[in-house]
Amino acid sequence: MWINDVRVLHIDLTNRKVRLEHRPDLKDWIGGTGAASKLFEELQGHEIPAGDDKSPIIFATGPLNGVLPLMTKVVSIYRSPYTGDWGESHAGGRLGMVMAYAGIDLLVITGKSERPVYLVIGPHSVEFKDARHLWGLDVFTTGRLIRLHEKRASGRRSILRIGPAAERGVKFAGVNVDTFRHFGRLGLGTLMGMKNLKAIVVVGDDSTHFGVNPEYTKFYKEIYDLVVGSDLLHKYHDLGTPQNVLPLNSIKSLPTKNMQKTQFEYAENISGEYFADNLLVRKIACSGCQVGCIHVGLLREQFGPEHEYKYTQVSYDHELIFALGSMLETKTAEEVLKLIDQVERLGLDAISSGVALAWTTEALERGIISEKDTGIKLQWGDTERYLEALQMLAYRVNDFWHLLGEGTMAAAREYGGEDFAAVLGQEMAGYATGPVYYVSQAMGVRHSHLDTAGYSFDQKATEYTPEAALEYIISEDRRRVVLTSLVSCLFARGLYTWDRVKKGLSIIGYEKQAEEAEEIGDEIRRLRWKLKVAMGYDPDNVKIPKRYFETETFRGKPDPEFTNKLIKMYASHIKELIK
Known about the structure:
With 579 residues, the protein is of the alpha+beta class. Helices cover 41% and strands 16% of the residues. It folds into three domains: 7-203, Aldehyde ferredoxin oxidoreductase, N-terminal domain (Aldehyde Ferredoxin Oxidoreductase,  A, domain 1); 237-409, Aldehyde Ferredoxin Oxidoreductase Protein, subunit A, domain 2 (Orthogonal Bundle), CATH 1.10.569.10; 426-577, Orthogonal Bundle (Aldehyde Ferredoxin Oxidoreductase Protein, subunit A, domain 3), CATH 1.10.599. It is globular. The two termini are 35 Å apart.
């Protein structure tokens, strides 16, 4: 465990070799994002193409995983097949806790298996198991069969698996973690598919111990009481992130109809309130979390004439509701659940899939592409057609769907329609608050809205200038990269202030890291940007598609002069940072 040692497990799929390495020096990078970034550099991941067998996949926990509430995430770092540069995804579920109980702080996977395999990793063993019978199966069937055959440590294991989209090389295929969580967005699932790695089972049936410390007990209770007894995290437990739908809609910030609008006529039908009142069946928490932000809805579908029904439990959140709801003008929550369920089974990234279909629908309307290209006529709000289209996207059934599987902008460059592609580095997240959010996602190191919270600045800033915006972006990036090195859930960003972060580090013996936390945050930022630029990213080439300047937001229609100035200032900061 991080407190006493740092254990790095290396697995070579090509030669089926396993090596355990002790790396206490990685504590200098705290853990999580920081330590994985340093290891990625050492492995020369930035010099190896994403599709190369040697390209590494790194999973990292952090020193506070399982030690304090909401320190629940695992960070994965890799070279993204989607962008060709920095790939970083975070996932919850059981994985962080299970890795700790398996005695693994970082897991490195390289090579390519000769045939499909899945890994079973325990405290003292690694097994390579034949996965040919699983290849081609959907995410849920794969999980069910693995649970059937791998009986060990039920409840203390984590199962990662990919679906057909990843096997076929869709560039934004994700990795399902414990059914309801994911490593999404930048194509980690695609890399696993390239390596013929269908699944990873981590078994945590050992124990861990870091000594008795009265200060720790007192501090844990302080944090716990804030989690369960204050309003800091109430939103996430009550309605969850779908609580955002109606407020964003009311301030013209809910992306709708491929960003043609920012208000959706049927927003109440797909709101967090509607889901909770009519479809919510349970809430789930990641291991080590008291919040329970994973909201699961009941999808009930008739399959026979004599009132024969099947039911499926589907997790939902704001990003999925936006991408497969308002962005496609899906009018009911039940239909949104159908689309989410299809995305999950196929192993696609939900945000990218929804945005890609929105672009496709508009491109068909405009005559830029035809039904001959798509093989299907898509219309806003036509859920049954969108269900078919998702299948075609995952299986890459023809040239058009193959290209769309490279990303929305890849298809737009080939067919036309770049001006209305809702892409900010990758397909946009569910906020149309204004130019600071647009720039912060387009120029973020992993193109994530959560890393710098530009959407928050758009809504709350009193001094709304490019200079103030850049200062805010840098400050949040520094703070949040330390949180993702611990590894904290970013929903706890209001809970874990700098003072509490430093106290948590000090209590486990990381006094030096506590004293230098801000400086370490800047070093991690510098390293990530250096590696991203080394892989070909050029901050001077960032462009915001025309659509974003045409559509009303909370801040009105974005001012091109303001936006371009912020882009140039941000690019200058990146270049200065990595000198």
